[in-house]
Amino acid sequence: MTDRKEIATTPFDGQKPGTSGLRKKVKVFQQPHYLENFVQAIFDTQSVLNNGCLVVGGDGRFYNREAIQIILRIAAANGVATALVGRGGILSTPAVSCVIRKYHAQGGIVLSASHNPGGADEDFGIKFNVASGGPAPEIVTDDIFVRTRSIDRYFTIAAAPLDLDLLGEYQLGDMKVQVIDSVADYAELMASLFNFDAIRQLFESGAFRMRFDAMHAVTGPYAVEILENILGAEPGTVINGIPLEDFGGGHPDPNLVHAHELVALAHGSDGVDFAAASDGDGDRNMILGNDFFVTPSDSLAVLAANAHLVPGYHQGIAGIARSMPTSQAADRVAAALGVDCYETPTGWKFFGNLLDAGRITLCGEESFGTGSHHVREKDGLWAVLFWLNLLAIKRQSVGAIVREHWQRFGRNYYTRHDYEAINSTAADGLMHHLHTLLPTLPQRVFGNYTVAYADDFCYVDPIDASMSTGQGIRIGFTDGSRIVFRLSGTGTEGATLRIYIEQYEPDATRHERPVQDALQPLITIARELAQIEARTERTAPTVIT
Ligand code: G6P
Ligand code: ZN
């Protein structure tokens, strides 16, 4: 093989991929051989890539370009036949999934640390996706990890960096590299799912204004092309649309705290009708109407109830899945539609088997992730276009659509209280304490609430029968209310305790209460049961969503 070099190396500790791949500080990745070892471990374990096609792209954060050049040289030295790379090294996470599926690639490498800040002193990440377009299942990531522990060499080739800013075909050793338009394939997929004509008419009507906050992250080019160029939204609809290596110093996480600029734009009589945001790598979404925040749990339920209005889903949906802590609003829609609703552990990967088997069409999580069978990642812009399609057909405000939904199905009041960066030992002690309480809880009465069941959530995958235990403590009450406790799997400092609280309210005259007021009795029960103050020394959560 042309110019192939074998480089001796030694293993690094801690190259175990987490929920969303290997995430570390940029400085860790910049150590000599660190990235190379991990990438070689992918090729050493994934023989399908030999002579195959590999998709490579990232969210544009600091170190994205250098990492791609390194990966391409290693891929060329390991017998990959073709690499498809997004122009400028840019591909959103759902776009990688779309491109893998469209071109029947054998896998993909996504460079991102999602919503974590970017920059020389911030985070970087690498994730391997398989031929279905989804994140590698644990059995694959375990193999890769095992390989990183014994790796003693990697292969690369001597070659100058490629110009990734120019579309076209290049030769790198024996490998063909195609620099592809980052947006085109994804935009074409979106056009096949949604009623673009109706959305265009909505924008042309002049009676509707929206803002999309790309947060200086990867969705900028996608949103400008699709919303402004293809759908005719007024120029300036997309704000913070230029991807920057440090995301402009911001925190590219679409929630009410980090997307505050957008929240202000959707406020009051001068405010826009619809506002949305996505995260660093384009898989999360936040949906706002004028002075109206749609919780991700409600968003999933509304999309499911109205899917028949959208061309890609007009024949109906096969089923819905939601992560366990996500509110049960979607369950009520599934029941009304007569389709199954699956409750999975937190983490998008748990939807993969259900999607592949055709059991579900839509899925979502309370953590601002929504998606469908069109790709195998959650998809931020997809959710925004789904909402636009509904707004264009219904010609109602976001708030009116959600209120009507509550009238029909009842409202699942919902909140999440996070206690971030608490002492890990204290957090483990708190969860242990809750475990010991579990058998004593059923039938116990707390004020107006009677416990119906209390357990530690365990999931048996209906397709491959794999079992995931210890996925969070659930306390369910006879009226359908729930309190869920779990420790975050993505935090970086100490432990983060998440408490999810939900109460079902069928009475439409009681749908306009402030969420924290409506849930106050359950919030108090949760704090007392878990002995939060005594165990964490915190009197209040750090974040409420
Ligand atoms: C990532 C995953 C999501 C998951 C979320 C949960 O964003 O992609 O699928 O819902 O993490 O994070 P947590 O911190 O609650 O474990
Ligand atoms: Zn993300």
From TrEMBL:
GO terms for biological process: glucose metabolic process. It catalyses: alpha-D-glucose 1-phosphate = alpha-D-glucose 6-phosphate. Keywords: Carbohydrate metabolism, Glucose metabolism, Isomerase, Magnesium, Metal-binding, Phosphoprotein. InterPro entries: A-D-PHexomutase_a/b/a-I, A-D-PHexomutase_a/b/a-I/II/III, A-D-PHexomutase_a/b/a-II, A-D-PHexomutase_a/b/a-III, A-D-PHexomutase_C_sf, A-D-PHexomutase_CS, Alpha-D-phosphohexomutase_SF, PGM. It is an enzyme of class 5 (isomerase). Residues 15-152, 185-288, 297-409 form the Alpha-D-phosphohexomutase alpha/beta/alpha domain. Its EC number is 5.4.2.2. Its cofactor is Mg(2+). It comes from the Bacteria. GO terms for molecular function: magnesium ion binding; phosphoglucomutase activity. GO terms for cellular component: cytosol. NCBIfam families: PRK07564.1-1. Belongs to the phosphohexose mutase family. PANTHER family: PHOSPHOGLUCOMUTASE, PHOSPHOHEXOMUTASE FAMILY MEMBER. This is phosphoglucomutase (alpha-D-glucose-1,6-bisphosphate-dependent). The lineage of its organism: Bacteria, Pseudomonadati, Pseudomonadota, Gammaproteobacteria, Chromatiales.
